[in-house]
Amino acid sequence: AKSRGRNNFQFFDATMDLRAARRLSLESSLRAALEREELQLYYQPKLDLISHRVVGFEALIRWHSHEHGAVPPDRFIPIAEETGLIMPIGEWVIDETCRQIAQWRAEGYDDMPVAINISLIQLTRTDLENTLVGHLHKHGIPSRLIELEFTESVLLQDFETAMDALQSLRRLGFTLTIDDFGVGYSSLNYLNRFPINVLKIDRSFVTSACEDQDAAIIVQAVVNLSHDLKLSVIAEGCETVEQLDYLKRIACDQVQGYLISRPMPAADVRQFLDSDYLY
Ligand code: C2E
Ligand code: CA
Ligand code: CA
Ligand code: CA
Predict the structure, then answer these.
(1) CA 60 to CA 73: how far, in whole Å?
(2) Which residues contact 51 (CB under 8 A, 6 or more apart)?
(3) Can you give the residue ranges of the EAL domain (predicted)?
């Protein structure tokens, strides 16, 4: 038993070394990613369930690394957050989103707000307001065209700082969304205190709503609660017609999901908007 324990330990150790090495290698590649222009934004449409029109997009970062291939954001965003690389990367996302909005406007498309995902560190350790306003001015676009998505954990980590930041962002005219609502912490206590505009129901509830009565009850309750609090409500991860019909039936305002469209590069957005996407 003793020797087996030691072998297990050695195996564990080697695995840890491999993972640590791979992580270090990802980290050093990520440091170079901005300069090498390996980052790109994809855009996923938000469909309004009353007008049946696309009323905005969410910007989602993509990294095509020369060394590692396509690395999903769930893998590299945590590394960026731990190393501080999220500051320049987050600012690049803001700049690129504003640039793209300005380009769509110049091309004559209807104004469509684009939502940006904001990390905790961006909210608490940088001057997010000034960064945003600076890039709005640079590209000549109004704040109403930018939505900011924060997860509950981001907002509850440091309540006072988050509250101050949200209040000034709201005053500046940005639309504020609570992302992934329903998982992790529960911010029911804070919902009516944070100056937010939109609740986004987490994909896990949407996925199970049509099979699981409890999930359906939660989704329905979140929609009602949002409306009672004068918030708009959007569901993410809608993949089937059944889910779409259900969300429509319970008066959810908007949906996002593969059923409407996967996130796509800016070049495909024009074609998408010009086509008769009908649901
Ligand atoms: P999120 O903000 O919750 O974004 C939704 C994720 O679900 C995206 O994954 C999107 O591609 C995916 N998705 C959309 N519709 C469907 C669907 O119908 N089915 C399924 N299975 N998935 C769907 P993605 O693009 O891999 O992003 C993962 C996470 O990475 C995001 O979760 C967000 O937390 C983070 N992230 C992405 N871009 C950024 C960014 O620019 N900045 C920061 N700080 N975080 C980002
Ligand atoms: Ca999001
Ligand atoms: Ca999510
Ligand atoms: Ca998320």
Answers:
(1) 8
(2) none
(3) 23-277
